[in-house]
Amino acid sequence: MAIFGYPEFLLSIPLILYLVYLLNRRGKKRPEPTNWPVVGMLPAILQNLRRLHDYATEVLAECGGTYVVKGPWFCNINLVFTSDPANIHHVLSKNFSNYPKGPEFRKIFEILGDGIFSADFELWEIHRKTTLSQLNHAKFGTSLEGAVWHKVETALLPVLDYLCKQGRDVDLQDIFQRFTFDNICKLVLDYDPRSLCVELPYIPCEKAFSNITEPLLHRHVIPETIWKLLKWLNIGGEKKLNEAAKAFDDFIYPLVSSKNLEENDLNMLRAFRKVYQEKSIGARGDLRDFLKDTALSLMLAGRDTTSTCLTWLFWLIAVNPCAEIKFREEIETELKLKDDKKWRFFNVEESWKLRFLHGALCESLRLFPPVAMEHKAPIRPDVLPSGHYLGENAKLIFSFYSVGRMESVWGKDCLEFRPERWFTPTGGVKQEPSYKFPAFNAGPRTCLGKEMAFVQMKMVAATIMYHYNIQLVEGHPVAPRDSIILQARHGLKVRLSKRC
Question: What does the pLDDT look like over 418-436, one tens digit per residue?
Fold first, then answer.
């Protein structure tokens, strides 16, 4: 990408601010941004910086699902945004080899280092195969099931009971983030930080995951020189990224030293250490750096995606009372709790009987996909099925958030929360193509932890719904953050009361 100099940038600031001012005065107009001389569509982007996902959805819906965003002429950051399932299928499956993460992605997500999210080619293959071998281990399912229920029994229920008795508002998003952070740390690092306890301690690493998601999104749409200048000045979102990087290092490095990698078959980092020592891996640093980067990506996947889906699930159920009734009826019927009314833990096989819960989770993932967008760049020129030409290393952005809100993809009721859309006529669970439902990505990079995520979410959701009545705190605003991970901007504040 061509980079412009600071003098050009500084000279353009008054023009950009003036155009943003004009846009605000124009009032409600068509969502398609104006392509201004010199500064391109940057004023519209800045005007909608606090609602980028919804703005992208409005533009894509009006313009057929694919749109070229023109940046300032002096920085060459034209972006192709798309929510077209045909384009997603073409890039992520049919023409996968032509679309690695690429150098621009690694630059934006430099904080993730050589983890699976930013790795390409042989290094990505090593990450994928090693992770898959652990997930397919004969003992993994039983171990996961035991770990989740242990955390539910020793942390989740005691904390919620305590907050319920105190009569305090509960931020369910914070509770879910702590729960999944503890679980993924135990799984990856064999260490439980116990962030979920009645004291709700502040753990910098745990909070750092939330702090990085917004500035990482802004790096996609703000010229590189601007965010690099902010990074050099250590201000704004870039300051948050710098602080988060230190928090990650301080937390993870001490836990990935060789002496902490116990000799057991289910220690994930031990498996990665073995692969690193056996193969010549082209990573940026030594073994310690490689293990830290590996752990960080796995922790990001395990904490943020699962907690985000649970957050939006409970919001959707709270604003759809009929769904809450069906949810509880299914739990009591399928888990046979109607007679003695005594809660019991259930296993992985039983979790698949909870069909309405599965459909509700899929609706949460459709309307609020945890990973709201993805960045790709072709290594060779290509033409998308939509007819749009992409030059070498052109920027292509998938808006997964927009896919689930397109009438052309999901029908006229696309904005409705309807778990029944995931039922088959024979009573089973409907499977949609990943390019239509890309919550777990698509093609060879499909999320390896998909089944693990569903199991954990069902256990947590069923436990909470059976034990508590949940009411949204009146006046508390609930809206998605403009970030890479689609968290609720102000959390999810609720009041809990024990069910009789």
Answer: 999 999 988 888 999 999 9
Q: Tokens for 416, please give them.
A: 């409705």
pLDDT band (50, 70, 90) for residue 3: very low
Instruction: Kindly report the three-state secondary structure assignment for every residue of 133-156.
Output: HHHCCCCHHHHHHHHHHHHHHHHH
The structure tokens listed for 104 are 């621009």
pLDDT > 80? residue 15: no
Please measure the distance between the N-terminal and C-terminal CA atoms of the chain and give it in whole angstroms.
62
Written as one letter, the residue type at 400 is F
Give the number of other CB atoms < 10 A from CB of residue 97.
Answer: 10
**pLDDT tens by residue, 106-115:** 899 999 999 8
β-strands 493-498, 170-171: how paired? antiparallel
d(CA 361, CA 363): 5
Residue with tokens 């990001």: 300
Mean pLDDT to the nearest integer, 298-324: 94
Pair of tokens at residue 429: 């669970």
DSSP one-letter string for 338-380: TTT-------HHHHTT-HHHHHHHHHHHHHS-SB-EEEE--SS
d(CA 156, CA 145): 15
